[in-house]
Amino acid sequence: MTFDGEYGPSTWDWVAEQAEEYEAxxxxxxxxxxxxxxxxxxxxxxxxxxxxxxxxxxxxxxxxGQYAIVASKGGAKEHxxxxxxxxxxxxxxxxxxxxxxxxxxxxxSGEERxxxxxxxxxxxxxxxxxxxxxxxxIPLFITEPQV
Length: 147
Description:
Elements: H1 13-24, E1 40-46, E2 53-59, E3 62-63, E4 66-70, H2 81-88, E5 91-95, E6 100-107, H3 110-123, H4 126-133, E7 140-143
Antiparallel strand pairs: 1-2, 1-5, 3-4, 4-7, 5-6, 6-7
């Protein structure tokens, strides 16, 4: 998988700006969600329709070297656009600090999802409110361990 194609920044200015500043500073700047002080990661996908490289800052939920990827979109009725990218191709880059690494994500269900959901809410409590706002079950992915 190649992530060096044409970049298509987010249409949400703050998302594009944060991802770009985080990446340009090797994770030293723009490393928290706005003024919350809570850490973020940057995930890179390939657009399933456009083929463009897409970057999105996400809340950092890490456990034993794996990361949760929470498709909350603030509790909106629909999934975030990048959810469809992951469903089409689960290969992503995750950047948590100076260097991104390639990994594969997997959609969770059952007890495994419950455990990771609890971790996610512990890391970022608004996730619980987001779930209450929407009728959809918020998709939750995890990165697979690198071997």
